Amino acid sequence: MTSLDASSRRAFLRRLGHLGIAGTAAPWALNLAAIGEAAAFSADGYKALVCVFLYGGNDNGNTLIPYDDAGYAEYARVRDALALSRASLDATALAGSGLPAGRQYALAPQLAPLKPLFDNGRLALQLNVGPLQQPTTLAEYQARSVPLPPKLFSHNDQQSVWQSSAAEGSVRGWGGRLGDLALSGNGGQSLFTCMSVTGNAVFLSGDQALAYQIGTGGAVAIQGVASSSGMYSAAACREALRTLITQGRDHLLENELNRITSRSLDSHAALAGALAGSAGQFDAALPDAVGGRARTLNQQLKMVARLIAARSQLGLKRQVFLVSLGGFDTHDNLLARHPVLLTDLGAALAGFQQAIDALGVGAQVTTFTASDFGRTMTSNGGGSDHGWGSHHLVMGGAVRGGAYYGQAPEALLGGPEDVGQGRLLPATSVDQYAATLARWFGVSESEMALVAPNIGNFGERNLGFLG
Questions:
Q1: Which residues contact 411 (CB under 8 A, 6 or more apart)?
Q2: Where are the domains of the chain?
Q3: CA–CA gap between residue 413 and residue 38 (Å, rounded)
Q4: Based on CB atoms within 10 Å of each CB, which residue in 80, 121, 386, 464 is the most buried?
């Protein structure tokens, strides 16, 4: 059985599982039954999704700030010592559509490089999004009368819920599930469809699509085979080692290990060749360091740009990437630490869009942020604590930018979204967020439950921020 046959078979079996869960009354379940074993994924042209995960729980309160008179006054009262001055927001005040009359927001000053993208319709803001199993009101949350996401406010679990719709220990993420569906468009190629430049994470784990990890300097080599120095300077020695670690074995586990090693060597060679011509190509847009300080997110996104530049050589029409920036667990010293993180985020996103536009695929790559959770609007004295819903950025040429999507919180404290201390009860679910991205990526409505398993519980499946 080929890898493509296996992928199609597994996808079909999983569709049947979702059909059983849905029940015959669900209209979308009837669509699943109608397609039989045929996948409905559309892969015309090239498209890529780039997830920028902000590990630690980004402080939404000082990322997108109320700027209208009444909104800012409430913000300053609630945030107390954490509040930014209104004058510091003048240059990043936004005039987008999608807000109630009289409401206005401003980006944090450090996100100033993103304002031109918003003004030019290439950046959108998704308001108050977070994990939900079904639409939930404050009264339902307080009474625990509806299913809630597992282990709310826990870093590890909420990272996993955001990335996979299940608590820590989940083995498949929705990025990986996108990769599984995209294998038909990529000729069944399980490598290079899902690529992480930030180490291991459940987000890119699929059934057949493999989460390929690459460093900011390129594919990680097996030193004895790749090196031409030291004890492996002789070609015969390197070839002998290669044979030893890749030849078939009678023992099942040894044979599997050698098979994986052989695949790793082949993939390293393919990537090294594909990336050879792009070294230094995006240094101006995404410098490795600024003012003597390393910009790790720049380095990760630069590698993503290089991989996208090599898409034809690698034979790919669909890719999902993961990069990250850590340090957002700002329980203390928020006013010193958070601006540094947002400076890196704003510069990296703007530089990456510049790099992608230079490649001529600005409308074929969509970049979006995600994080463990938002944070409390109230101050704990020097920082903010774990929250729930948060605001996120979606960027790219296909984005219907210059606009807000979702529902702006009615009040920072004491409103229908406040579950305590200004923690936002999400008005939009991660499943809806993922489904909107997946639809643009090429996933049909009949396949959507494979990517976003709770999507059948929500009436609105397309949030509208992508064309």
A1: 74, 417, 418
A2: 3-215+282-457, 219-279
A3: 50
A4: 386
Cα dihedral value 396, 375, 438, 429, nearest 10: -130
Residues in Cβ contact with 353 at an 8 Å cutoff, skipping those fewer than 6 apart: 117, 122, 362, 367, 395, 396
Cβ count within 10 A of residue 87: 7
Q: At which residue do the structure tokens 């997946």 appear?
A: 438
- Is the domain spanning 3-215+282-457 CATH 3.40.960? The answer is no
| Per-position pLDDT tens, the chain of length 467 | 444 344 444 544 454 444 333 333 343 333 433 343 334 677 789 999 999 999 999 999 999 999 999 999 999 999 999 999 999 999 999 999 999 999 999 999 999 999 999 999 999 999 999 999 999 999 999 999 999 999 999 999 999 999 999 999 999 999 999 999 999 888 777 789 999 999 999 999 999 998 999 999 987 666 655 655 655 566 676 566 566 656 777 777 766 666 655 556 666 677 888 899 899 999 999 999 999 999 999 999 999 999 999 999 999 999 999 999 999 999 999 999 999 999 999 999 999 999 999 999 999 999 999 999 999 999 999 999 999 999 999 999 999 999 999 999 999 999 999 999 999 999 999 999 999 999 999 999 999 999 999 999 999 999 999 98
Count Cβ atoms below 10 Å from residue 13 Cβ, excluding itself: 11
